[in-house]
Design brief:
The protein is an alpha+beta fold. It is built from 4 helices and 5 strands; from the N terminus they run H-H-H-E-E-E-E-H-E.
Length: 112
């Protein structure tokens, strides 16, 4: 299995960890990724959650959250995601750590 495929599996299986597939693949060897996946699964089992949620456990429709810039005179741009002026957008499927940091800092806010 390619490194990016293993990294994608880790991101999808453990979304609460905040990993980014591309970054994991760049910074780790295949052996490192395999070990990380094994360790995360063991950690999950030790916590009593022995399996990932089944598709029937996941709600089919999630509430769509849109985000905008707090100050419309600014802009935010990264590969695959741009906000400018009063534009409102959904976050990408796997938001970058930079984007999440801007949200946590309050530069990008959820539209209510």
């Amino acid at each position: 299995m390619a490194k990016i495929d293993t990294a994608d599996e880790i991101v999808n299986e453990f979304p609460d960890k905040g990993y980014e597939a591309e970054k994991l693949a760049e910074e780790n060897t295949q052996a490192d990724l395999d070990q990380l996946q094994k360790d995360l699964r063991a950690e999950r089992e030790a916590a009593g959650d022995e399996s990932p949620p089944s598709p029937s456990d996941v709600p089919e429709e999630k509430a769509v959250k849109k985000y905008r810039l707090k100050d419309p005179k600014t802009s935010y741009q990264e590969v695959g995601f741009t906000l400018a002026d009063d534009q409102e957008k959904e976050l990408p499927e796997n938001p970058s750590s930079f984007l999440m940091a801007r949200i946590k800092a309050g530069f990008i806010v959820e539209v209510k």
